[in-house]
Specification:
Blueprint lengths: L1 H15 L9 H15 L8 H12 L4 H20 L2 H12 L3 H9 L1
Helix pairs in contact: 1-5, 2-3, 2-4, 3-6
Keywords: Signal
Length: about 110
C-alpha cells in the first residue's frame, strides 16, 4: 500500500513538472523536503543533496510553521521508505530522485 502511495505521489509531482511561477508552493516545498531526505539516505547518497538543501533554505522564509512541520513529516516518511527500500520500491525512489526531484534543482539554478 505504501509503495502504491509513493508511486502515486511521485507520478503526481512528475505530472506537475517544475513550478510555473517564480513562487514555490507549499506543496513543492514539502516535496523538496522529501527529495532531500531520499537523497540523504545511505542507500542513495545522491550528489544532488546539496542542491536540494540549498533550494529548501532559499524557500524556507515566509513558510508557516504548519508547512514546515508537514515538510519535516514528509522527510521523515521518505527517510523510512529509503531505509527499507529494496527491489521495486528502491527503483521507484531512484526514479523520483532522477525525475520529479530534479525540478527543484533546476528551479534553484533558474533563480
Amino acid at each position: 500500500m505504501r509503495f502504491a502511495i509513493s508511486v502515486f505521489a511521485a507520478a503526481s509531482v512528475l505530472a506537475l513538472g517544475a513550478p510555473a511561477s517564480a513562487e514555490v508552493s507549499d506543496q513543492d516545498y514539502i516535496q523538496a523536503s522529501r527529495c532531500a531526505a531520499i537523497a540523504r539516505s545511505s542507500k542513495f547518497k545522491s550528489p544532488d543533496l546539496q542542491a536540494f538543501k540549498a533550494f529548501l533554505e532559499s524557500e524556507e522564509e515566509g513558510r508557516t510553521i504548519t508547512t514546515r512541520r508537514r515538510a519535516d513529516m514528509a522527510a521523515s516518511l521518505a527517510k523510512q521508505e529509503a531505509l527499507t527500500a529494496s527491489g521495486e520500491k528502491k527503483a521507484a525512489l531512484e526514479a523520483e530522485l532522477s525525475g520529479a526531484c530534479q525540478a527543484f534543482k533546476l528551479q534553484l539554478a533558474g533563480n
